[in-house]
Amino acid sequence: MTSVSIRNLEIRYGQHAVIDKLDLDIRDGEFLVLLGPSGCGKSTLMNAVGGLTDASAGSIHFDGKDVTWADPKDRGIGMVFQSYALYPTMSVRRNMSYGLRIARVDRATIDRKIEWAAEVLQITHLLDRKPAALSGGQRQRVAIGRALVRDADIFLFDEPLSNLDAKLRAELRLEIKKLHKAIGSTMIYVTHDQIEALTLADRIAVMKDGVIQQLDTPLNVYNKPANAFVGGFLGSPAMNKVEGQFSTRDGTLTFETGGFALDMEAYPFEERVETGQKATLGLRPEHIVPADGTSRQLEGTLSLIEPMGSDILAWSDFGGISMAHRLSQEDSYTVGNPFAVNIDTRKASFFDQATGKRL
């Protein structure tokens, strides 16, 4: 296992900073996911760790050893790309062993490593097939196996599941999670798919414009986003965002919007808020529930219903403000009917409108 320490890293193309003064520590044996929209710099950062992209400034260390300018072959990494990059004329066995054969590893060692990796990935029965005879998921397992046999200290995954259908993605997510548990190596995984990030990661680094916006556990990134960007990026459907401002009613802090007002007495603010301060309410759909008569009841109109299988996704209008929320399959609902909900403000997020930071 190997730790990674990145200090003040910059990667520039001309005047454009793809990575801007970035610091990051990755622990021994950690599964770290770099998550963000296209163009945020996550693949560039991973390529810098792998030695495929040169740094403009800063340093990269593996277990305290400076590898900023080391060749990729000298870094002890295994890399799995978005494309399978398999040799079509070679069998699975020869594809997986190619790097070892080039390095002149002895035949017995190669055979032992191939058998081990094939067993871990459940592709032993495929070793004599060629890539054309494999499904997309099987090809991706072969690509992972090719990296595994190199005894790498760090494994880099660059959106390895993006070319697969939904069912295969779910299956391979599970396989990758099992793989990490089995071998315990440090893994860095790049994706724009939040489900992959939330299910695989020990920690998630959410990136935007070459800067890490939040580095935390999946649970904290989802439930306590550091800013409005993180809150809006994670979640499907997206977090409801409603603009408003804080006021005081009868000595109680209240958040007022154009359509409704919420009592803030129970909300655990991390930053001091002032009366008149403008903020954005961030509320996950699962935190808006049908009313049961409590004091936070809001009246609205059910405007749209979308069956999702396990539950129902709905949109309701509250005084001109539309918000998504979830409903149980067990009850019946009619579009256009009045609809009342409860909002637990303790599970909400509030972001300063000026800075976007969590309050």
Q: Mind describing the biggest β-sheet? A: 6 strands, mixed
Name the helix and strand elements from N-terminus to C-terminus, one letter apiece.
EEEHEEEHHHEHEHEEHHEEEEEEEEEE
Q: For the record, what CATH class of the largest domain applies?
A: Alpha Beta
Provide the spatial order of strands within the biggest beta sheet: 6-7-8-3-9-10
Q: What is the alpha-carbon Rg in Å? A: 25 Å
Q: The CATH topology of the largest domain is what?
A: Rossmann fold
> How much helix, percentage-wise, in residues?
10-25%
Q: Please, how many helices?
A: 8
Beta-strand fraction estimate: 25-35%
Unreliable residue stretches: none
Overall form: globular
Mean pLDDT: 88
Number of domains: 2
Count of DSSP strands: 20
| Structural category | alpha+beta
- The CATH architecture category of the largest domain equals 3-Layer(aba) Sandwich
Explain what the structure shows.
The protein is an alpha+beta fold. The protein folds into two domains: 230 residues, P-loop containing nucleotide triphosphate hydrolases (Rossmann fold), CATH 3.40.50; 111 residues, Nucleic acid-binding proteins (OB fold (Dihydrolipoamide Acetyltransferase, E2P)). Helices cover 24% and strands 34% of the residues. It contains eight helices and 20 strands. The chain has a six-stranded mixed sheet with strand order 6-7-8-3-9-10, sandwiched between helices. Strand 12 and strand 13 form a beta hairpin. Helix 2 packs parallel to helix 4. The two termini are 38 Å apart. The mean pLDDT is 88.
